[in-house]
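Students often ask why inverse folding is considered easier than folding. One informal answer: many sequences map to the same fold, so there is more than one right answer. In these notes we will look at a single instance of the problem. The structure comes first.
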């Protein structure tokens, strides 16, 4: 099957809805992820990438997200007391149709949904989209110093491939080493089953906010 970059379209699960990201989403996205603890682990280039005000965040977001070369999404809750609330963002990008490679990244969540079903279902929806579109390998990566993100990626069932040294500059000018993980199409049925099994633990229970740090 020849890989084809998917057209931007909503993806709906049981707990979250992924909507193609637009500038109109950015004020609500800032309310969700505009917290120092989100950037502390390396998101947006690390702590120096943090933008405290909505205006600063919108200006930063215009240059940070893969608007042209990827499919960025806003993540909105379905069901429960917080239905409709935007709680994060994620992107499917870096499409190489010839080699059937894609990349899930630019992912951040409101700390109040860390450890909930939000990341599990968001990844399930994006991985399903990638493999249904003919891609054979999906890369997921994190700053090597970000233990939380590395554990979350490994918990999805992704395979750790190694560390790419001096991969990209952080916002403070230092150089980031990236921990590289991937899921290939031959592994997808097992990975998908594992993600669905994890989601089954929350069956019938909407996402509940946790206290911020």
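Output (designed amino acids):
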């Amino acid at each position: 099957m020849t890989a084809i970059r998917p057209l931007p379209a909503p993806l709906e699960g049981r707990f979250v809805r992924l909507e193609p990201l637009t500038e109109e989403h950015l004020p609500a996205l800032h309310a969700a992820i505009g917290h120092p603890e989100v950037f502390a682990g390396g998101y947006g280039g690390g702590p120096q990438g943090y933008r405290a005000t909505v205006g600063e965040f919108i200006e930063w977001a215009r240059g940070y997200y893969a608007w042209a070369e990827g499919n960025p999404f806003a993540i909105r809750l379905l069901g429960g007391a917080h239905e409709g609330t935007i709680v994060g963002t994620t992107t499917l990008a870096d499409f190489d149709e010839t080699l059937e490679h894609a990349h899930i990244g630019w992912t951040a969540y409101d700390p109040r949904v860390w450890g909930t079903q939000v990341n599990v279902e968001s990844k399930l929806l994006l991985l399903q989209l990638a493999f249904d579109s003919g891609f054979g390998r999906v890369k997921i990566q994190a700053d090597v110093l970000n233990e939380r993100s590395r554990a979350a990626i490994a918990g999805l069932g992704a395979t750790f491939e190694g560390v790419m040294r001096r991969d990209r500059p952080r916002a403070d000018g230092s150089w980031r080493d990236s921990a590289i993980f991937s899921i290939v199409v031959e592994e997808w049925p097992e990975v998908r089953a594992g993600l669905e099994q994890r989601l089954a633990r929350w069956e019938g229970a909407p996402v509940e906010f946790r206290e911020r740090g």
